[in-house]
Amino acid sequence: MAEITETTNGADAPQVVEASPTAQVNDIPQANAPQGNGNGTAAKPAVLIVGGLGYIGRWLALYLHQNNLASEVRLVDKVLPQLAFLAEDFSEACSPDKFMQADAGREQSLERIFTPKTAAQYDYVFNCGGETRYSQDDSVYVLRSVDLTVTLARECARRRTPAYVEFSTGMVYKPPSSSTISGGGSTETAAIKPWLRLARSKLVAEEELGNIAKEFRENGRGELRYTILRLPHVYGDYDVGFLARGLCMARVYQSKGDEMKWLYGRDLRVNTVHVLDVTAAAWLAAGWAARGGARDLERKETHSDRIFNIVDDGDTSQGDIASLVGAIFETPTGFQNTLVSAFAKLNLDHVVDEVNDEVLQPWADLLREHGITRPGPIGPFMEKELLRDCHLCLNNTKAKRTLGWAPGQGREKLSKEAIEGVVRSYKRMGWWP
Prior knowledge:
The protein is an alpha/beta fold. The protein has helices spanning 23-26, 55-67, 110-113, 138-159, 178-182, 197-219, 242-256, 275-290, 318-329, 338-346, 348-369, 397-403, 416-429; strands at residues 46-50, 72-77, 99-101, 124-127, 163-169, 226-231, 233-235, 260-262, 272-274, 307-309, 333-335. It has a seven-stranded parallel β-sheet with strand order 3-2-1-4-5-6-10, with helices on both faces. Strands 7-9 form a two-stranded parallel ribbon. A two-stranded parallel sheet has the order 8-11.
Protein backbone atom coordinates (compact mmCIF):
# COMPACT_ATOMS: atom_id res chain seq x y z
CA MET A 1 0.00 0.00 0.00
CA ALA A 2 1.28 3.45 -0.87
CA GLU A 3 2.06 5.87 1.95
CA ILE A 4 1.83 9.48 2.36
CA THR A 5 -13.46 14.59 -5.71
CA GLU A 6 -15.31 13.23 -5.21
CA THR A 7 -16.70 11.45 -2.22
CA THR A 8 -20.26 12.69 -2.22
CA ASN A 9 -22.13 13.17 1.01
CA GLY A 10 -25.10 10.91 1.56
CA ALA A 11 -27.00 12.69 4.30
CA ASP A 12 -30.57 13.45 3.30
CA ALA A 13 -32.25 12.70 0.02
CA PRO A 14 -32.56 15.86 -2.10
CA GLN A 15 -35.82 17.62 -2.65
CA VAL A 16 -37.49 17.18 -6.01
CA VAL A 17 -36.56 20.13 -8.18
CA GLU A 18 -38.28 21.24 -11.35
CA ALA A 19 -36.15 21.12 -14.46
CA SER A 20 -34.78 24.59 -14.96
CA PRO A 21 -31.75 24.49 -17.24
CA THR A 22 -29.41 27.36 -16.53
CA ALA A 23 -27.45 29.41 -18.97
CA GLN A 24 -24.36 27.54 -17.84
CA VAL A 25 -25.90 24.14 -18.46
CA ASN A 26 -27.04 25.24 -21.90
CA ASP A 27 -23.54 26.55 -22.52
CA ILE A 28 -21.96 23.10 -22.28
CA PRO A 29 -18.85 23.37 -24.51
CA GLN A 30 -19.32 21.89 -27.94
CA ALA A 31 -16.77 19.15 -28.46
CA ASN A 32 -15.10 18.30 -31.70
CA ALA A 33 -16.17 15.10 -33.42
CA PRO A 34 -15.02 11.98 -31.57
CA GLN A 35 -11.37 11.31 -32.34
CA GLY A 36 -11.56 7.54 -32.29
CA ASN A 37 -11.29 5.06 -29.47
CA GLY A 38 -7.55 4.60 -29.46
CA ASN A 39 -7.74 1.33 -31.40
CA GLY A 40 -7.32 2.84 -34.83
CA THR A 41 -11.04 3.10 -35.60
CA ALA A 42 -13.40 6.06 -35.78
CA ALA A 43 -16.01 4.48 -33.49
CA LYS A 44 -17.16 6.52 -30.53
CA PRO A 45 -15.31 5.43 -27.40
CA ALA A 46 -16.98 3.62 -24.54
CA VAL A 47 -16.45 5.59 -21.33
CA LEU A 48 -16.13 4.60 -17.68
CA ILE A 49 -16.37 7.40 -15.08
CA VAL A 50 -15.37 6.40 -11.56
CA GLY A 51 -16.79 8.81 -9.02
CA GLY A 52 -19.45 9.48 -11.61
CA LEU A 53 -21.86 11.16 -9.20
CA GLY A 54 -19.25 13.48 -7.72
CA TYR A 55 -19.08 17.11 -8.77
CA ILE A 56 -16.73 16.73 -11.74
CA GLY A 57 -18.04 13.26 -12.60
CA ARG A 58 -21.65 14.36 -13.07
CA TRP A 59 -20.65 17.35 -15.20
CA LEU A 60 -18.42 15.12 -17.32
CA ALA A 61 -21.36 12.76 -17.83
CA LEU A 62 -23.51 15.71 -18.92
CA TYR A 63 -20.79 16.89 -21.31
CA LEU A 64 -20.64 13.47 -22.96
CA HIS A 65 -24.43 13.24 -23.11
CA GLN A 66 -25.09 16.65 -24.62
CA ASN A 67 -22.32 16.28 -27.18
CA ASN A 68 -23.19 12.64 -28.00
CA LEU A 69 -19.54 11.65 -27.66
CA ALA A 70 -19.62 8.12 -26.29
CA SER A 71 -21.01 4.82 -27.54
CA GLU A 72 -21.59 3.73 -23.94
CA VAL A 73 -21.19 5.42 -20.57
CA ARG A 74 -21.00 3.83 -17.14
CA LEU A 75 -20.98 5.87 -13.94
CA VAL A 76 -19.56 4.11 -10.90
CA ASP A 77 -19.99 5.51 -7.41
CA LYS A 78 -20.37 4.28 -3.86
CA VAL A 79 -23.18 6.79 -3.30
CA LEU A 80 -26.67 6.10 -4.63
CA PRO A 81 -28.14 8.71 -7.01
CA GLN A 82 -30.98 9.36 -4.56
CA LEU A 83 -28.44 10.55 -1.99
CA ALA A 84 -26.10 12.49 -4.29
CA PHE A 85 -28.02 15.80 -4.45
CA LEU A 86 -28.38 15.52 -8.22
CA ALA A 87 -30.20 18.38 -9.94
CA GLU A 88 -32.81 17.65 -12.58
CA ASP A 89 -30.29 18.85 -15.18
CA PHE A 90 -28.45 15.54 -14.77
CA SER A 91 -31.45 13.20 -14.93
CA GLU A 92 -30.64 11.83 -18.40
CA ALA A 93 -26.85 12.02 -18.25
CA CYS A 94 -26.83 10.20 -14.89
CA SER A 95 -29.83 7.97 -15.49
CA PRO A 96 -30.17 4.66 -13.58
CA ASP A 97 -29.32 2.57 -16.66
CA LYS A 98 -25.85 4.18 -16.71
CA PHE A 99 -25.19 3.88 -12.99
CA MET A 100 -23.49 1.10 -11.05
CA GLN A 101 -23.06 1.23 -7.30
CA ALA A 102 -19.66 -0.19 -6.47
CA ASP A 103 -16.40 0.52 -4.69
CA ALA A 104 -13.83 0.78 -7.48
CA GLY A 105 -11.02 0.55 -4.95
CA ARG A 106 -11.87 -3.10 -4.23
CA GLU A 107 -10.20 -5.52 -6.61
CA GLN A 108 -13.10 -7.96 -6.38
CA SER A 109 -15.37 -5.29 -7.94
CA LEU A 110 -13.20 -4.64 -10.98
CA GLU A 111 -14.46 -7.39 -13.28
CA ARG A 112 -18.02 -6.20 -12.90
CA ILE A 113 -17.05 -2.53 -13.24
CA PHE A 114 -14.84 -3.01 -16.31
CA THR A 115 -17.27 -5.25 -18.22
CA PRO A 116 -19.37 -3.02 -20.54
CA LYS A 117 -22.92 -3.78 -21.54
CA THR A 118 -22.26 -3.78 -25.29
CA ALA A 119 -18.74 -2.53 -26.07
CA ALA A 120 -15.74 -4.84 -26.20
CA GLN A 121 -13.98 -2.74 -23.56
CA TYR A 122 -13.94 0.74 -22.06
CA ASP A 123 -11.73 3.00 -24.14
CA TYR A 124 -11.58 6.01 -21.80
CA VAL A 125 -11.47 5.68 -18.00
CA PHE A 126 -11.82 8.86 -15.93
CA ASN A 127 -10.98 8.73 -12.23
CA CYS A 128 -13.15 11.42 -10.66
CA GLY A 129 -13.30 9.54 -7.36
CA GLY A 130 -11.36 9.78 -4.15
CA GLU A 131 -11.56 11.80 -0.95
CA THR A 132 -12.11 15.53 -1.54
CA ARG A 133 -12.68 16.66 2.05
CA TYR A 134 -9.89 18.62 3.69
CA SER A 135 -8.15 18.01 7.02
CA GLN A 136 -8.50 14.22 6.97
CA ASP A 137 -5.89 11.81 8.35
CA ASP A 138 -3.28 10.61 5.88
CA SER A 139 -4.64 7.08 6.27
CA VAL A 140 -8.02 8.25 4.95
CA TYR A 141 -6.46 9.76 1.84
CA VAL A 142 -4.38 6.64 1.24
CA LEU A 143 -7.39 4.34 1.51
CA ARG A 144 -9.87 6.44 -0.46
CA SER A 145 -7.64 8.17 -3.00
CA VAL A 146 -4.18 6.65 -3.45
CA ASP A 147 -5.33 3.03 -3.27
CA LEU A 148 -8.18 3.82 -5.66
CA THR A 149 -5.78 5.30 -8.21
CA VAL A 150 -3.38 2.36 -7.93
CA THR A 151 -6.17 -0.21 -8.28
CA LEU A 152 -7.71 1.48 -11.32
CA ALA A 153 -4.38 2.17 -13.01
CA ARG A 154 -3.17 -1.40 -12.67
CA GLU A 155 -6.43 -2.70 -14.09
CA CYS A 156 -6.26 -0.25 -17.01
CA ALA A 157 -2.65 -1.25 -17.67
CA ARG A 158 -3.53 -4.94 -17.60
CA ARG A 159 -6.41 -4.38 -20.02
CA ARG A 160 -4.38 -1.95 -22.16
CA THR A 161 -7.11 0.67 -21.83
CA PRO A 162 -6.43 3.33 -24.50
CA ALA A 163 -6.74 6.28 -22.08
CA TYR A 164 -6.77 6.79 -18.32
CA VAL A 165 -7.36 10.32 -16.93
CA GLU A 166 -6.48 11.23 -13.34
CA PHE A 167 -7.71 14.44 -11.67
CA SER A 168 -5.19 16.02 -9.31
CA THR A 169 -4.61 19.43 -7.74
CA GLY A 170 -2.38 22.43 -8.31
CA MET A 171 -1.71 22.46 -4.58
CA VAL A 172 1.09 19.95 -5.18
CA TYR A 173 3.33 22.80 -6.35
CA LYS A 174 5.59 24.76 -4.05
CA PRO A 175 3.83 28.11 -3.51
CA PRO A 176 5.25 30.30 -6.28
CA SER A 177 7.41 33.36 -5.83
CA SER A 178 6.29 36.81 -6.94
CA SER A 179 8.42 36.49 -10.08
CA THR A 180 6.76 33.17 -10.96
CA ILE A 181 3.32 34.72 -10.42
CA SER A 182 4.13 37.70 -12.62
CA GLY A 183 5.48 35.26 -15.22
CA GLY A 184 2.16 33.44 -15.49
CA GLY A 185 2.21 30.97 -12.59
CA SER A 186 3.58 27.51 -11.91
CA THR A 187 4.18 25.35 -14.97
CA GLU A 188 4.01 21.56 -15.00
CA THR A 189 7.75 21.35 -14.31
CA ALA A 190 7.72 23.77 -11.34
CA ALA A 191 9.10 22.77 -7.95
CA ILE A 192 6.91 20.37 -6.00
CA LYS A 193 6.03 20.90 -2.34
CA PRO A 194 2.42 19.96 -1.45
CA TRP A 195 0.97 22.20 1.23
CA LEU A 196 -2.18 20.25 2.13
CA ARG A 197 -2.63 16.65 3.25
CA LEU A 198 -5.00 16.14 0.34
CA ALA A 199 -2.35 17.45 -2.05
CA ARG A 200 0.30 15.13 -0.60
CA SER A 201 -1.92 12.15 -1.32
CA LYS A 202 -2.58 13.39 -4.84
CA LEU A 203 1.15 13.64 -5.48
CA VAL A 204 1.68 10.09 -4.20
CA ALA A 205 -1.08 8.92 -6.56
CA GLU A 206 0.56 10.74 -9.46
CA GLU A 207 3.91 9.12 -8.74
CA GLU A 208 2.28 5.70 -8.53
CA LEU A 209 0.92 6.19 -12.05
CA GLY A 210 4.43 6.74 -13.34
CA ASN A 211 5.69 3.67 -11.48
CA ILE A 212 2.89 1.48 -12.80
CA ALA A 213 3.40 2.66 -16.37
CA LYS A 214 7.11 1.86 -16.10
CA GLU A 215 6.46 -1.56 -14.55
CA PHE A 216 4.09 -2.70 -17.28
CA ARG A 217 6.25 -1.22 -20.01
CA GLU A 218 9.24 -3.20 -18.78
CA ASN A 219 7.48 -6.50 -18.16
CA GLY A 220 5.49 -6.34 -21.40
CA ARG A 221 2.27 -7.54 -19.74
CA GLY A 222 0.30 -4.39 -20.42
CA GLU A 223 0.42 -0.64 -21.01
CA LEU A 224 -0.82 2.37 -19.09
CA ARG A 225 -1.67 5.37 -21.27
CA TYR A 226 -2.36 7.98 -18.65
CA THR A 227 -2.63 11.71 -18.29
CA ILE A 228 -2.99 13.90 -15.20
CA LEU A 229 -4.97 17.14 -14.91
CA ARG A 230 -3.89 19.45 -12.10
CA LEU A 231 -6.72 21.75 -11.11
CA PRO A 232 -7.14 24.95 -9.08
CA HIS A 233 -10.44 25.71 -7.31
CA VAL A 234 -13.23 24.35 -9.52
CA TYR A 235 -16.57 26.19 -9.51
CA GLY A 236 -19.88 26.22 -11.36
CA ASP A 237 -23.57 25.60 -10.78
CA TYR A 238 -24.29 23.47 -7.68
CA ASP A 239 -20.71 23.99 -6.47
CA VAL A 240 -20.01 22.46 -3.05
CA GLY A 241 -16.33 23.39 -2.72
CA PHE A 242 -14.15 26.42 -2.04
CA LEU A 243 -16.44 29.02 -3.59
CA ALA A 244 -19.53 27.58 -1.90
CA ARG A 245 -18.01 28.17 1.55
CA GLY A 246 -17.24 31.78 0.71
CA LEU A 247 -20.72 32.45 -0.63
CA CYS A 248 -22.38 30.94 2.45
CA MET A 249 -20.17 33.05 4.71
CA ALA A 250 -21.03 36.14 2.70
CA ARG A 251 -24.74 35.40 3.13
CA VAL A 252 -24.21 35.24 6.91
CA TYR A 253 -22.33 38.53 7.03
CA GLN A 254 -24.99 40.10 4.82
CA SER A 255 -27.71 39.02 7.24
CA LYS A 256 -25.77 40.41 10.20
CA GLY A 257 -24.86 43.65 8.44
CA ASP A 258 -21.19 43.09 9.29
CA GLU A 259 -18.07 43.59 7.20
CA MET A 260 -16.59 40.37 5.80
CA LYS A 261 -12.84 40.45 6.37
CA TRP A 262 -10.31 38.16 4.72
CA LEU A 263 -6.87 37.06 5.93
CA TYR A 264 -3.50 37.58 4.25
CA GLY A 265 -4.26 40.32 1.73
CA ARG A 266 -5.95 40.86 -1.59
CA ASP A 267 -2.99 39.67 -3.70
CA LEU A 268 -3.11 36.07 -2.44
CA ARG A 269 -3.73 33.93 -5.53
CA VAL A 270 -6.65 31.50 -5.40
CA ASN A 271 -6.85 30.52 -9.07
CA THR A 272 -10.07 29.11 -10.48
CA VAL A 273 -11.55 27.21 -13.42
CA HIS A 274 -15.16 26.56 -14.40
CA VAL A 275 -16.28 22.93 -14.25
CA LEU A 276 -17.47 23.07 -17.86
CA ASP A 277 -13.93 23.83 -18.95
CA VAL A 278 -12.60 20.97 -16.81
CA THR A 279 -14.87 18.53 -18.64
CA ALA A 280 -13.78 19.82 -22.04
CA ALA A 281 -10.12 19.53 -21.01
CA ALA A 282 -10.65 15.98 -19.72
CA TRP A 283 -12.10 14.87 -23.06
CA LEU A 284 -9.25 16.43 -25.01
CA ALA A 285 -6.69 14.89 -22.65
CA ALA A 286 -8.23 11.43 -23.05
CA GLY A 287 -8.04 11.70 -26.82
CA TRP A 288 -4.44 12.86 -26.55
CA ALA A 289 -3.51 9.90 -24.34
CA ALA A 290 -5.31 7.42 -26.61
CA ARG A 291 -3.34 8.69 -29.61
CA GLY A 292 -0.07 7.98 -27.84
CA GLY A 293 0.34 11.12 -25.80
CA ALA A 294 3.88 12.41 -25.65
CA ARG A 295 5.42 9.66 -27.77
CA ASP A 296 6.00 12.00 -30.69
CA LEU A 297 8.57 14.00 -28.73
CA GLU A 298 12.11 14.08 -30.10
CA ARG A 299 13.40 13.10 -26.67
CA LYS A 300 12.62 10.48 -24.06
CA GLU A 301 9.22 10.99 -22.50
CA THR A 302 9.09 12.10 -18.86
CA HIS A 303 6.32 11.88 -16.27
CA SER A 304 5.72 15.64 -16.42
CA ASP A 305 4.97 15.37 -20.16
CA ARG A 306 1.70 13.69 -19.19
CA ILE A 307 0.61 16.44 -16.78
CA PHE A 308 -1.53 19.46 -17.68
CA ASN A 309 -2.56 22.48 -15.62
CA ILE A 310 -6.21 23.34 -16.31
CA VAL A 311 -6.93 26.89 -15.13
CA ASP A 312 -8.74 29.92 -16.50
CA ASP A 313 -7.00 33.08 -17.70
CA GLY A 314 -8.16 35.31 -14.85
CA ASP A 315 -5.35 34.68 -12.33
CA THR A 316 -8.02 34.90 -9.62
CA SER A 317 -6.93 36.47 -6.32
CA GLN A 318 -8.60 36.98 -2.96
CA GLY A 319 -9.09 40.60 -3.91
CA ASP A 320 -11.04 39.58 -7.01
CA ILE A 321 -13.35 37.32 -5.04
CA ALA A 322 -13.83 39.89 -2.27
CA SER A 323 -14.82 42.56 -4.81
CA LEU A 324 -17.26 40.25 -6.60
CA VAL A 325 -18.83 39.00 -3.37
CA GLY A 326 -19.16 42.53 -2.03
CA ALA A 327 -20.94 43.67 -5.19
CA ILE A 328 -23.31 40.69 -5.28
CA PHE A 329 -24.30 40.72 -1.60
CA GLU A 330 -24.03 44.49 -1.22
CA THR A 331 -22.00 44.02 1.91
CA PRO A 332 -18.65 45.58 2.83
CA THR A 333 -15.54 43.43 2.43
CA GLY A 334 -11.98 44.04 3.52
CA PHE A 335 -8.75 42.45 4.70
CA GLN A 336 -7.23 41.96 8.12
CA ASN A 337 -4.09 43.93 8.88
CA THR A 338 -0.65 42.35 8.84
CA LEU A 339 -0.56 41.85 12.61
CA VAL A 340 -3.85 39.93 12.65
CA SER A 341 -2.78 37.80 9.68
CA ALA A 342 0.53 37.00 11.37
CA PHE A 343 -1.32 35.96 14.54
CA ALA A 344 -3.62 33.76 12.46
CA LYS A 345 -0.67 31.88 10.96
CA LEU A 346 0.54 30.95 14.44
CA ASN A 347 -2.90 30.22 15.91
CA LEU A 348 -4.90 28.66 13.09
CA ASP A 349 -6.86 26.30 15.35
CA HIS A 350 -8.07 29.21 17.46
CA VAL A 351 -8.86 31.36 14.42
CA VAL A 352 -10.82 28.60 12.67
CA ASP A 353 -12.83 27.86 15.82
CA GLU A 354 -13.62 31.54 16.20
CA VAL A 355 -14.71 31.92 12.58
CA ASN A 356 -16.95 28.88 12.76
CA ASP A 357 -18.48 30.09 16.04
CA GLU A 358 -19.37 33.35 14.29
CA VAL A 359 -21.03 31.84 11.23
CA LEU A 360 -22.45 28.38 11.90
CA GLN A 361 -25.30 29.33 14.22
CA PRO A 362 -26.37 32.35 12.11
CA TRP A 363 -26.38 30.05 9.05
CA ALA A 364 -28.60 27.57 10.90
CA ASP A 365 -30.88 30.44 11.89
CA LEU A 366 -31.13 31.59 8.27
CA LEU A 367 -32.08 28.09 7.14
CA ARG A 368 -34.77 27.87 9.81
CA GLU A 369 -36.14 31.33 9.02
CA HIS A 370 -36.49 30.38 5.34
CA GLY A 371 -38.13 27.05 6.07
CA ILE A 372 -35.21 24.93 4.83
CA THR A 373 -35.57 21.75 6.85
CA ARG A 374 -33.44 19.49 4.63
CA PRO A 375 -30.25 21.50 3.95
CA GLY A 376 -28.07 20.68 0.98
CA PRO A 377 -24.33 19.95 0.93
CA ILE A 378 -23.27 23.59 1.28
CA GLY A 379 -22.49 25.69 4.34
CA PRO A 380 -20.00 28.18 5.80
CA PHE A 381 -17.97 25.68 7.84
CA MET A 382 -14.31 26.62 7.44
CA GLU A 383 -11.52 24.04 7.36
CA LYS A 384 -8.19 24.84 8.97
CA GLU A 385 -6.28 23.74 5.88
CA LEU A 386 -8.07 26.27 3.70
CA LEU A 387 -6.74 29.17 5.76
CA ARG A 388 -3.21 28.89 4.46
CA ASP A 389 -1.10 31.78 3.26
CA CYS A 390 -0.07 29.92 0.11
CA HIS A 391 -0.53 31.06 -3.47
CA LEU A 392 -2.42 28.76 -5.84
CA CYS A 393 -1.29 30.13 -9.19
CA LEU A 394 -1.09 27.92 -12.30
CA ASN A 395 0.08 28.39 -15.89
CA ASN A 396 -2.16 26.93 -18.61
CA THR A 397 0.12 27.48 -21.62
CA LYS A 398 0.92 23.80 -22.11
CA ALA A 399 -2.72 22.70 -22.12
CA LYS A 400 -3.53 25.34 -24.72
CA ARG A 401 -0.57 24.43 -26.90
CA THR A 402 -0.69 20.63 -26.65
CA LEU A 403 -4.39 19.86 -26.18
CA GLY A 404 -5.86 22.79 -28.06
CA TRP A 405 -7.86 23.65 -24.94
CA ALA A 406 -8.98 27.08 -23.78
CA PRO A 407 -11.56 28.39 -21.30
CA GLY A 408 -14.97 28.86 -22.88
CA GLN A 409 -16.23 32.22 -23.98
CA GLY A 410 -17.38 34.20 -20.97
CA ARG A 411 -15.51 31.88 -18.62
CA GLU A 412 -12.02 33.23 -19.17
CA LYS A 413 -12.13 34.55 -15.61
CA LEU A 414 -14.36 34.37 -12.57
CA SER A 415 -17.20 36.86 -13.04
CA LYS A 416 -20.10 38.41 -11.18
CA GLU A 417 -22.50 36.72 -13.60
CA ALA A 418 -21.00 33.29 -12.95
CA ILE A 419 -21.23 33.66 -9.17
CA GLU A 420 -24.81 34.89 -9.43
CA GLY A 421 -25.53 31.80 -11.52
CA VAL A 422 -24.13 29.60 -8.75
CA VAL A 423 -26.41 31.24 -6.18
CA ARG A 424 -29.41 30.80 -8.48
CA SER A 425 -28.59 27.09 -8.77
CA TYR A 426 -28.63 26.82 -4.96
CA LYS A 427 -32.04 28.49 -4.88
CA ARG A 428 -33.44 26.03 -7.42
CA MET A 429 -32.27 23.16 -5.23
CA GLY A 430 -33.80 24.68 -2.11
CA TRP A 431 -30.41 25.03 -0.44
CA TRP A 432 -30.18 28.82 -0.23
CA PRO A 433 -31.72 30.94 2.53
